[in-house]
Write a structure and sequence with these properties.
158 residues; mainly beta; two-stranded antiparallel ribbon; elongated
């Protein structure tokens, strides 16, 4: 990671520009996306949607630009632009990462059916059979390789 922050106007304003990159074969440093309620505790089971097997590649990079306005020592207004890219689908897309009908089924280690129920199966072919047959009977999260956003924050010190 490399970031640079420049202050100006008697240190009342600042611009920060920077970015970073990761190359992590095996994904042991990568947070598992919370697909179907996946968590750090359940990640040891290995999600069928985002595996963490030895040798599974994960390369990513990000960049950001931030403008801070600090009219006094108690408040900061921040505007930020971020862009992230990963070598594999990782970021949540508009379709989400929660199976239908909008709630997790409690079994993140198995494929979910399009109905939202757990297939009880960790292999795709077995899940297709358990969910009623065909690829459309198994639900998949909407994961993307790229993510970009603009955000604004107000930080107050009490």
């Amino acid at each position: 990671m490399l970031y640079n922050r420049d202050w100006f106007k008697k240190d009342k304003h600042a611009i920060t520009i920077g970015g970073g990159q990761i190359n992590n074969p095996g994904r042991y440093l990568v947070l598992v996306p919370p697909i179907n309620g996946e968590s750090a505790a359940s990640a040891a089971v290995n999600s069928p949607y985002f595996t963490g097997n030895p040798g599974d590649p994960f390369k990513a990079w990000d960049t950001s630009a931030t403008f801070d306005s600090m009219p006094n020592q108690y408040i900061t207004f921040r505007w930020e632009y971020d862009y992230r890219h990963a070598s594999v689908p990782y970021w949540s897309g508009a379709g989400g990462i929660t199976p239908p009908p909008g709630s997790n089924n409690g079994f993140p280690q198995y494929y979910a059916c399009s109905s939202g129920a757990s297939s009880g199966q960790a292999s795709l072919s077995a899940a297709e059979a358990a969910c009623g047959g065909g690829a459309s009977s198994v639900w998949f999260p909407d994961l993307r390789r790229d993510e970009q956003f603009i955000d604004m924050a107000i930080m107050v010190k009490f």
